[in-house]
Amino acid sequence: MIDLIQHYWKALLFSDGYHFTGVVVTLWLLVIAIALGFTLSIGLSMARVSSRKWVQFPVWLFTYVFRGTPLYVQLLIIYSGLFSLDYIRGHEFLSWFFRSGYRCTILALVLNTCAYTTEMFAGAIRSIPRGEIEAAQAYGFSGWQMYSHIIIPSMLRKALPAYSNEVILMLHATSLAFTATVPDILKIARDMNAATYLSFQSFSIAAVIYMCISFTLIGSFRLAEKRWLKHLQPAS
């Protein structure tokens, strides 16, 4: 029993040189999903606030669908549902892509966080005072200059507190990766529970690890807020 516990403890935290640990897999999923979702959402948020309906509507539909359905269901559709289609299995690239639990999990996480972040950034853009836009236009800023120098920086600062919550929620969402047999923290904890029947110890260890990562992320965002939102803090 002790050997089993040591084995799973190493699988959670310590690499043997050939396999990634549960913590590394979880952080890897989080970083890739957040990086891709963040990048895509910047462009999509601009389209979301566009006055052109044909530009705005597809983005609205995307965010409506992915915010209106559970991430767990989205992962099941992407990992199990799509691969059951004859067209997917018959296409060389699509069959290769959707056969991997890692790739399906990342795709589901990216689409989900992108939908939420797009609406978050779009709301931040709408909250930018009209006077700032008019001042930029008066100075002769082009559309690209206005977005790159005024709108996007202001959007990112305004959305920072809410975006920190999205990152924490996405960390917790990575625990669904076990559905696609990805060996993240929860998957290893479940394996440990199945092998040792120590349910409380197995899942408590996983909970403590998630909590430590969450507090680290929260602390990092607090430091970022103090630096970039310093002008919003009350004068002492």
TrEMBL record:
UniProt topology in membrane: Multi-pass membrane protein
Residue ranges of every copy of the ABC transmembrane type-1 domain listed in the record: 23-221
Xref: CDD domains: TM_PBP2
Transmembrane segments: 20-47, 59-80, 100-118, 198-221
Keywords: Amino-acid transport, Cell membrane, Membrane, Transmembrane, Transmembrane helix, Transport
Pfam families referenced in this protein's UniProt entry, alphabetically: BPD_transp_1
NCBIfam families: HEQRo_perm_3TM, PRK15069.1
Family: Belongs to the binding-protein-dependent transport system permease family. HisMQ subfamily.
PANTHER family per record: ABC TRANSPORTER PERMEASE, HISTIDINE TRANSPORT SYSTEM PERMEASE PROTEIN HISM
Name listed for the protein in its UniProt record: Histidine/lysine/arginine/ornithine transport system permease protein HisM
Organism from which the protein derives: Celerinatantimonas yamalensis
